[in-house]
Write a structure and sequence with these properties.
The complex is a heterodimer.
Chain A: E1 3-8, E2 13-18, H1 28-39, E3 53-57, E4 70-76, E5 83-89, H2 91-98, E6 101-107, E7 117-122, E8 125-130, H3 139-149, E9 153-157, H4 160-163, E10 171-174, E11 180-184, H5 189-196, E12 198-204, H6 215-231, H7 240-244, H8 249-255, H9 277-287, E13 292-295, E14 306-310, E15 316-318, H10 323-328, H11 338-351, H12 355-367, H13 376-388, H14 391-397, H15 400-407, E16 414-415, E17 418-419, H16 429-437, H17 450-455, H18 469-486, H19 492-498, H20 500-514, H21 520-540, H22 553-556, H23 570-574
Parallel strand pairs in A: 1-6, 7-12
Antiparallel strand pairs in A: 1-2, 3-4, 3-6, 4-5, 7-8, 9-10, 9-12, 10-11, 13-14, 14-15, 16-17
Chain B: E1 2-8, E2 26-30, H1 36-43, E3 52-55, E4 58-60, E5 71-75
Parallel strand pairs in B: 1-5
Antiparallel strand pairs in B: 1-2, 3-4, 3-5
The chains are: A alpha+beta, B mainly beta.
Chain lengths: 579, 81
């Protein structure tokens, strides 16, 4: 029977108990959000003793379900002040699930600030170990030391930004080759981990692949989903994601006039080609060596959209150049040199910050005149300030909103104080609705309406027309809450949206694990229930519908080339929550 | 005849007549009222490999009739996030 690990950082004790009945059919985001809702005072200080940090693998994570090696991390966010769930693809999730642990709950706070522990988890239990030797170390060195010391373990850690409790600090997980590259990046969860006094977690590998309750149903569902992923044009082997990575989106968003450029002042970037997935794949081919596309973030992924970007000499520079990172540290800063972008991602991975929030904060800093747009070396220097923890680094490290206030900038692209990702709301109206109304702050993954608005997945809608987008965003947010709970990668939804049998297969695998008989409508209802719970937490934390609004400048600054403002009315935005 | 500029993306770059990385734009001289489908055919790109066309930053269907100076971007099925 699945169990919960509770770690009390105040008295450095660990206890393991059987999961209460209420939580047994939950996983991933559904579980982290329920535990945060039930156990965290919404008015607490996110970096104080009363916040809790929850890790939970998805419902099917640890089974043989494809592309399901996801872990959700939840807490009250120091960036937004609301509930947060941020998930990542990593073998860590599978190892944790295979030992029978449904969640880790980190509570309390180390009594001495600056004192850090390591949590070691094995099939026999869990223990806290002093981690003085890891203090101040970057994520690369931390993972390398722990991999050397604890062979056959998966690893999670924070970097210096998390130790210094900066609001853009993320939580890093290893990839299959032990790179410090997989992040639950958004919302400052690394700062929460740092505030607890927890530097790292190691989880013993070697648990058996989990057997579902209903084996035949699972195998049937697994086959349908695998067939769907292998046949859909964007997820199949040799398909767009596999061949070019997620940065294949750079050129199409640029062509649609929706690639935020130079701190959201334009929708087209003249240097887009140089930071695109096509250019990345070509560079990998030319340089050879350690470079590769089609890399998997965890064993059992069918899509394999990750990559390893090589230096000119073929050595491993960084994994992974995602669309979001290439945009945030490229187009958003006016930087068109992929080697400089790779170096910025490497620094973010090492110091332990979210590449999106880092890029948006640097864009605001450039707007403020701290560096010229297009100056990649200066941008690298600003990121290094965050790692050093200088006063300027602390300002930047607390995110785009904080940086905007510090320097008197009014063009600050945030919602609920979280930096906007790589889709311009004024050029793609539906994704703006998701950014604005999500419980998470500006988050593209919360309801990825880009699929029908730009990519022609699940139909084709005009991105510039707001018509019908309220309902679209709501349903996408609900489906996503379910998928994030099931433990499937969001990219499986490209196949499940277009191929009905793949969607059936996904639901069958969940039913086979839980012993439930959910149908498609039930999954949406479950998703809406999670959204409602998260919304209630945020209301109790002080949020109102006035927080579901775009940044003011987007209401009056026209974005070239389409010269639209953000024209979804406030009353329409409020309708997202009318269910 | 009118001139248009065509850009190919992702897997469609292998149809670039000048080879290389396929990232360079192609200037084509075509008759007035030529459709996007006819341009695809002229470039030898099978219809089933094409998912989307953006012309001057706007999405257009295959029967769109090109105009002088159009910048045409042709994409296969792609996604990301």
């Amino acid at each position: 029977m699945a169990s919960l690990i509770r770690v009390n950082m105040t008295d450095a004790t660990v206890s393991i108990s059987t999961t209460p009945i209420k939580y047994r059919k939950m996983g991933g985001r559904g579980l982290t959000s329920n535990l945060v809702f039930d156990e965290v005072n919404p008015e607490c200080h996110p970096l104080g003793i009363n916040n809790k940090l929850i890790f939970a693998p998805g419902i099917v994570t640890g089974t043989a379900a494809p592309s399901s090696g996801r872990i959700s991390v939840g807490a009250k966010s120091p960036l937004t002040g609301g509930i947060k769930e941020s998930n990542s693809g990593t073998p860590f999730s599978q190892s944790l699930a295979r030992l029978g642990y449904q969640a880790i709950v980190i509570e309390g706070q180390a009594q001495k600030k600056g004192e850090f522990h390591l949590l070691k988890i094995s099939k026999d239990g869990a223990e806290l170990i002093k981690a003085t030797e890891l203090q101040g170390k970057g994520a690369y060195e931390t993972i390398s030391i722990l991999n050397e010391k604890y062979k056959e373990h998966d690893i999670c850690c924070i970097g210096p930004a998390g130790e210094k409790r900066m609001s853009m600090a993320g939580i890093c997980f290893n990839d299959p080759e032990y790179r410090a590259s997989r992040y639950s990046g958004r919302g400052g969860l690394g700062a929460v981990m740092g505030s607890k006094g927890l530097k790292a977690i190691v989880v013993e590998k070697g648990g058996s692949i989990l057997s579902p309750l209903t084996d035949d149903l699972f195998k049937s569902g697994q086959k349908k989903l695998v067939d769907g992923l292998r046949s859909h044009d964007v997820t199949k082997p040799g398909g767009a994601l596999n061949s070019f990575g997620t940065a294949v989106l750079i050129n199409i968003l640029n062509q649609a006039g929706g690639l935020p450029t130079r701190n959201f002042s334009a929708g087209v970037f003249e240097g887009a080609e140089q930071i695109s997935g096509e250019h990345l794949a070509e560079t990998v081919k030319e340089r050879g060596g350690a470079g590769m596309t089609g890399h998997a973030c965890h064993p059992g992924c069918v899509v394999r959209c990750s990559n390893v970007y090589p230096r000119p000499d073929g050595s491993d520079h960084v994994s992974c150049i995602e669309y979001e990172s290439a945009w945030a540290l490229g187009a958003n800063l006016g930087v068109d040199d992929l080697d400089q972008v790779a170096e910025m991602i490497r620094i973010c991975n090492d110091i332990g910050v979210d590449t999106i929030e880092a890029g948006v904060a640097l864009g605001v800093a450039m707007e403020a005149g701290l560096a010229e747009f297009g100056d990649g070396e200066a941008a690298i220097g600003l990121l290094e300030e965050i790692g050093k923890g200088s006063p300027l680094g602390h300002i930047l490290g607390n995110g785009a909103g904080f940086t905007g206030k510090a320097f008197g900038v009014t063009r600050v692209p945030v919602v609920k104080n979280q930096g906007m990702p790589a889709y311009e709301p004024r050029a793609v109206k539906g994704i703006g609705i998701t950014y604005i109304t999500s419980t998470m702050g500006a988050d593209h993954t919360a309801g990825y309406t880009i699929a029908p608005e730009i990519l022609g997945v699940g139909g084709k809608l005009d991105p510039l027309d707001p018509e019908g987008k309220i309902e679209l965003s709501r349903i996408f947010q609900a489906v996503t809450a379910f998928v994030d709970s099931a433990g499937y990668c969001l990219f499986t939804t490209f196949a499940t949206t277009d191929i009905p049998s793949a969607n059936e297969g996904m639901i069958e695998t969940v039913n086979a694990v839980l012993g439930t008989d959910y149908d498609s409508d039930d999954t949406i209802a479950l998703g809406l229930e999670i959204l409602r719970l998260e919304r209630t937490f945020n209301e109790r934390a002080g949020f109102t519908n006035k927080d579901d609004r775009p940044p003011e400048f987007m209401r009056h600054e026209k974005l070239p080339p389409h010269n639209h403002v953000y024209d979804v009315p406030d009353e329409a935005l409020d309708e997202v929550w009318n269910f | 005849m009118i001139e248009v500029e065509v850009f190919l993306f992702a897997s469609l770059r292998r149809y670039h007549p000048h080879g290389g990385t396929g990232s360079e734009g192609l200037t084509l001289s075509v008759a007035s009222n030529t459709t996007l489908s006819e341009i695809h055919e002229a470039l030898g790109i099978p219809a089933e490999e094409i998912k989307m066309n953006y012309v001057n930053n706007l999405y257009q269907e295959q029967d769109y009739k090109v105009q002088a100076g159009d910048k045409i971007a042709i994409f296969p099925p792609i996604a990301g996030g």
